[in-house]
TrEMBL record:
SUPFAM superfamilies: Protein kinase-like (PK-like). Gene3D superfamilies: Phosphorylase Kinase, domain 1, Transferase(Phosphotransferase) domain 1. One of its GO terms (biological process) is G protein-coupled receptor signaling pathway. This is Kinase-like domain-containing protein. InterPro entries: AGC-kinase_C (IPR000961), Kinase-like_dom_sf (IPR011009), Prot_kinase_dom (IPR000719), Protein_kinase_ATP_BS (IPR017441), Ser/Thr_kinase_AS (IPR008271). Residues 284-363 form the AGC-kinase C-terminal domain. Pfam families: Pkinase.
Length: 432
């Protein structure tokens, strides 16, 4: 099932990219500001993921800087284990990201169905993700929201980082804004001592622990309890830990979850931390020379016969959508735009990976992040909700929600939408 964007006049593939260039296929994800669809380029027949964000909702939620920031960062990035931007454009109603298509689902989707994953599988993901993180850090970018929801599998089972709407460039000066998903935040974020890219390695450690053992290393009945646990509690292992994970594996996880950033794995400057991690005995089975070429066969291959996402998004699109997405010619008169709409019009620029060189906007985009807040669900995330104690904030109001009003792996949850004030008041911004 799908809809075809069509118009009577021929399509100009040599001109600026637009929605007329694509066939719209199934809806695979949904967020506060828009949806994610599978699309096919009419000329090349290549399949992509189309993430589109409604401009009016974006302005209402004061999230314009986030969208522009993500758009600019993605133009700079190109790596085999990152969901890369291929095209960007806008029409009068939406901003569009055309990204690498990941049909294998996100790791939260698989974790909820499997309960936990074999150590061999997690080690493979950690190798791929550490390669992606090292690449970002070399560019001077920290992700700030690494979690299973933001790790997508391709159809072969390779892991990719996605969701860059609170990612930022970093320099010598440490950041202090509280940003990310609370359960995966490093202690230096929560204690507001200032932080840099080291936080991504901590989040990777939380992911590794959760994927192997089916629970997070630090938990709490409230946000204050969780903050204390992350900042103070000793790292504890499940009773059956040695049955699920080797000592070398636990050593790597412990090294990533080191509160002292001078000792945390991955954090030595100049890329030496990443090289040290690669040399650890746990990664001995990994052939690093062929890793980035994706020659290795992943230990877990998603079932291609099943939808690796929540199929209710497509049903909702068919039954409830009163303004379905379709290609439209742009209005000629743009004189009456609000300041925010004009900012998007001018700064959410078109991009075509086949015609344009990737470039960095740093440091000119740094002013955008002064009011940036919150995070998104992943590119093709199958759930609009978030796990328990998953506070997503940046210098503003954080909305804590478990997405379904239930327990997550036996953890106590807060109310479905309990609002907590963090630092100065600012608007919560969430988009897909």
């Amino acid at each position: 099932m799908g809809a075809v964007c069509c118009r009577p006049t021929p399509i100009d593939f040599d001109g600026e990219v637009n929605l007329f260039h694509f066939v719209l296929l199934r809806c695979v994800g949904k967020g506060a500001f828009g949806k994610v669809r599978v699309v096919q380029h009419k000329q090349t027949r290549e399949l992509y993921a189309l993430k589109y964000i409604n401009k009016a909702k974006c302005v209402k939620m004061k999230a314009v800087p986030n969208v522009i920031q993500e758009r600019r960062l993605l133009e700079e990035i190109d790596h085999p284990y990152i969901v890369n931007l291929r095209y960007a454009f806008q029409d009068d109603e939406n901003c569009f990201f055309v990204l690498d298509l990941m049909l294998g689902g996100d790791l939260r989707f698989h974790l909820e169905r499997l309960g936990a994953m074999p150590e061999e599988t997690v080690r493979f993901y950690m190798a791929q993700l550490s390669s992606g993180l090292a690449y970002l850090h070399e560019l001077g970018i920290m992700h700030r929201d690494l979690k299973p929801d933001n790790i997508l599998l391709d159809e072969r089972g390779n892991a990719h980082l996605t969701d860059f709407n609170i990612a930022v460039h970093f320099g010598e000066r440490k950041l202090t804004g509280v940003a990310g998903s609370m359960a995966y935040m490093a202690p230096e974020i929560l204690t507001k001592r200032g932080y840099t890219y080291y936080i991504d390695w901590w989040s990777l450690g939380v992911c590794a622990y959760e994927l192997i053992f089916g629970r997070r290393p630090f938990r709490g009945r409230s946000n204050s309890d969780l903050t204390y646990s992350i900042s103070k509690d000793p790292l504890k292992w499940p009773e059956d830990a040695e049955k699920k994970c080797s000592r070398n594996g636990m050593q790597v996880i412990k090294g990533l979850l080191e509160r002292d950033t001078t000792k945390r794995f991955g954090c030595k400057p100049g890329g030496e931390g990443y090289q040290e991690l690669r040399r650890h005995p746990w990664f001995k089975p990994i052939d690093w020379d062929t890793l980035e070429s994706k020659e290795q066969i992943p230990p877990f291959i998603p079932d291609a016969k099943k939808a690796n996402f929540d199929a209710s998004h497509e049903l909702e699109e068919l039954l409830l959508e009163d303004n379905p997405l379709k290609a439209k010619a742009r209005k000629a008169n743009q004189d009456n735009l609000s300041a925010e709409m004009r900012q998007m019009e001018e700064q959410f620029t078109s991009y075509d990976f086949k015609k344009m060189q990737r470039r960095s906007y740093y440091p000119h985009n740094q002013h955008l992040i002064s009011t940036a807040t919150a995070t998104s669900s992943g590119l093709a995330s199958s759930r609009p909700g978030t796990p328990a104690n998953d506070l997503r904030v940046e210098n503003g109001i954080g909305i804590v929600s478990n997405g379904h009003g239930d327990l997550h792996n036996g953890e106590e949850t807060l109310g479905e939408k309990e609002i907590m004030r963090v630092d100065k008041i600012a608007a919560m911004k969430e988009y897909s």
